[in-house]
Design goal:
It is a single chain. By secondary structure, this protein is α/β, with parallel strands linked by helices. Helices cover 36% and strands 15% of the residues. Strands 1, 2, 3, 4, 5, 6, 7, 8, 9, 10, 11, 12 and 13 form a 13-stranded mixed β-sheet that branches. Strand 6, helix 1 and strand 7 form a beta-alpha-beta unit. Helix 5 crosses helix 7 and helix 8 packs across helix 14. The radius of gyration is 23 Å and the shape is globular.
Length: 537
């Protein structure tokens, strides 16, 4: 007989599974289903229920391609719009004091992913650190990150930043309810990987999230994804074109169109944009001037981001995974050259200082001279960056460059900026077991999830170390977990990890053995200064 355990939340009682070491509650709703007239609207409160709600099984993943919701080689979670749920994992041992809470936000490019992935349940993390682990779903793709606000009518409103609002609603649920599970609502750490790490940074820049968390961890964040409202509206028009919807019919059609039809249109539009404009990702939190007042990086620079302690870092070989399975990053010489030559869009000169002031030049007086000057500067940026990657345009150097552009370059800027206002800790993950090295992946994107969640001894972890390196992988896992857990408990990682400053740039290298380096890859860091994602055109 399966053991169960009941907890009473503010919305009603939920029944979870009681295992040998932890108890798990699955797919607890933190907001009402965003369906029908509430599609493309901000999350609404849950309608309280009577009796005991079954929380022993997973419900729906967010709308996405079926392959994105895979939870195993032959299993995929059903997808649907009624997806605003979260999961709680708690140790079974009694505790005299409330436990720290770690809230995980999954990645997947804001297009795919699910909190039902077994890895994310966090059982090993919960037991090792005596913490509560929460993993959340949020709306993805068209339903979470495409801004259709331009097509609102008095009778049919469309809200912006729905996925971001969902994450805030989940954190509000944690504040109201986590004490019932033994957690401390005054000691909440948010952590995420890839798009989930970007979500962490976006939450730090979101006024509505103030006070809902107390520490933050961003693993492999594409930190400067932040379309402007104008760019978001341009992309929304492209989606309507793919759907064959006239702007005047959008309000009604977007409410009644099939969810999968909308999903497919966004998938197609995203693919087309990324092929035409390498380095740009249009589906992300939108700088709408209201819910997200400024881009996350701008909030860090100007000090308006929530001043909580932050761990942030990247993996050494981020892009190798994408080259093999998802060719979306600028990892070919042609894509990288295009990106670097578009400095009229890609040079970060600040909101109030034109590019030519930064260059110490006067503004060109003719359109032709303007284009000539920008082209000259684009060539100079290209030469500067490519010179920092010996071997370019060879494949290995180009792939490293694409990963650094997408993840490391903007993360460094966050480290620099946030360290002026709050404790900041930087890391780089370098370790890869022998089998992963021989396969050509190295310390690739998302590999850090295995040691963070303590899955080195799982069947997946064993397979990765079939050719050796198991003991070293366990050592790296201990580095991650012990630092993450110390940080979640106190706001400070282990004493061997110094805080990041712009003077020292101390960075913990997660490897076997681990070590601290000062300003690693300095030449590359300097080469990337001032370069950012192009604007959508």
């Amino acid at each position: 007989m399966v053991a169960t355990t009941d907890i009473t939340t503010a919305d009603g009682a939920v029944r979870g599974l009681r295992g040998r070491r932890v108890s798990r509650w699955r797919s607890i709703p933190f907001a009402a289903a965003p369906v029908g007239e509430f599609r493309f609207r901000a999350p609404r409160p849950v309608q309280p229920w009577s009796g005991v709600r079954d929380a022993t099984r997973f419900g729906y993943a967010a709308m996405q391609h079926r392959d994105g919701a895979r939870t195993g080689p032959r299993q995929a979670q059903p997808t649907g719009e009624d997806c605003l749920t979260l999961n709680v994992t708690a140790p079974n041992t009694p505790s005299a004091t409330p436990r720290p809470v770690m809230v995980f936000i999954h990645g997947g490019g804001y297009m795919i992913g699910t909190s039902a992935l077994r890895l994310y349940s966090g059982g090993r993390l919960a037991v090792r650190g005596d913490v509560i682990v929460v993993s959340v779903n949020y709306r993805l793709g068209a339903f979470g990150y495409v801004d259709f606000g331009e097509y609102s009518t008095p009778d049919s409103q469309f809200d912006s930043n729905l996925g971001l609002r969902d994450q805030v609603a989940a954190l509000e649920w944690v504040r109201r309810n986590i004490a019932a599970f033994g957690g401390d609502p005054n000691n909440v750490t948010i952590f995420g990987e890839s798009a989930g790490a970007h979500a962490v940074l976006a939450l730090m820049a979101t006024p509505a999230a103030a006070g809902l968390f107390h520490r933050a961890i961003a693993q492999s964040a594409p930190a400067d994804w932040a379309p402007s409202q104008a760019e978001a509206r341009l992309f929304a028009r492209r989606v309507l074109d793919d759907l064959g919807i006239a702007p005047g019919d959008a309000a009604k059609a977007l409410r009644t169109a099939g969810a999968n039809d909308i999903r497919k249109a966004v998938d197609h539009s995203v693919s087309r944009v990324m092929q035409q404009q390498p380095g740009l990702f249009p589906v992300a939190p939108v700088v709408d001037g209201e819910y997200l007042p400024v881009a996350p990086i701008a909030a860090f620079v100007n000090g308006t981001a929530h001043r909580v302690p932050l761990i942030i870092g990247t993996n050494r070989d981020e892009a190798t995974l994408f080259v093999r399975f998802d060719d979306t990053l600028p990892t070919t010489p042609d894509r990288m050259r295009w990106l670097l030559r578009h400095v009229d869009q890609a040079l970060d000169v600040g909101d109030d200082s034109p590019i030519f002031t930064k260059l110490g030049q006067s503004m060109p007086t003719s359109q032709d001279r303007l284009h000539e000057t920008l082209a000259e500067f684009g060539a100079a940026v290209e030469n500067r960056v490519t010179a920092a990657y010996p071997g370019f345009p060879g494949k290995r150097a180009t792939v490293r460059m694409g990963g650094d552009f997408t993840f490391w370059r903007p993360s460094v800027r966050v480290m620099e900026a946030h360290s002026r206002y709050a404790p900041t800790y930087a890391y780089r993950y370098d370790f890869a077991p022998r089998a992963i090295q021989l396969s050509g992946f190295g310390a690739t994107h998302a590999l850090d999830l295995i040691p963070v969640f303590g899955a080195v001894d799982s069947s997946l972890g064993r397979a990765m170390t079939a050719l050796g390196g198991h003991r070293a992988f366990r050592e790296v896992s201990s580095q991650f977990q012990d630092n993450w857990l110390a940080f979640a408990r106190t706001g400070t990682p282990l004493p061997v990890w110094p805080a990041y400053t712009e003077e020292q740039r101390a960075t913990l290298i997660m490897d076997s053995p681990g070590r601290v380096e000062r300003d690693p890859e300095r030449a590359k860091r300097l080469a990337w200064q001032g370069v950012r994602i192009p604007a959508l055109t």
